[in-house]
Specification:
alpha/beta, 5-stranded parallel β-sheet, 7 helices, 18% strand, single chain, 41% helix
Length: 156
């Protein structure tokens, strides 16, 4: 069984899990070059519920946000790497600039972003709060950034 699911399949899987009382945690990102900051962030996210779902920006989506030189790794590789982590339960890929549609379908109990996002600026926050869900901005882990890592590699 693969952890990488289309949004329509994922919605059905999560409905079954939710009916069993499981708490769904959702976060999203590009996760272009996985680093220790990502690992610590995702492990902390998982502790806030039972099922950790990652909305992964597609290659197209990453280019819209980060520019033509990104992503470094294709979406299929990024999804497979994330799905290999024991604390990640599901990964779904989205093409849009934001994960709004994914959040609307997943209906997480907890919506999480990193500390570089203010809770009120997190896409989907008002929707999640509207049905009693929680929105959490986890502390940013200093010293770890994909962008700074890419800059460092290009200068060496």
């Amino acid at each position: 069984m693969t952890k990488i699911k289309s949004l329509s399949v994922l919605s059905k899987v999560l409905a079954r899990l939710r009916s069993k009382g499981k708490r769904i945690v959702f976060t999203n990102g590009c996760f272009d070059i996985l680093h220790l900051g990502h690992i610590r962030y995702l492990k902390r996210a998982k502790k806030l519920g039972d099922i950790l779902v990652i909305g992964l920006n597609s290659d197209r989506s990453v280019r819209l946000i980060k520019g033509a030189a990104r992503p470094i790794n294709r979406q299929s590789a990024r999804a497979e790497i994330l799905s290999a982590l024991y604390f990640v339960d599901y990964v779904t890929i989205f093409n849009e600039r934001t994960p709004k549609e994914v959040i609307n379908k997943v209906r997480p109990d907890v919506l999480i972003k990193g500390g570089d996002w203010k809770a009120e600026d997190i896409v989907g926050a008002s929707f999640v709060k509207s049905y009693g869900g929680a929105v959490v901005s986890l502390p940013f882990i200093k010293g770890y950034s994909t962008t700074s890592l890419i800059k460092k590699l290009r200068n060496e």
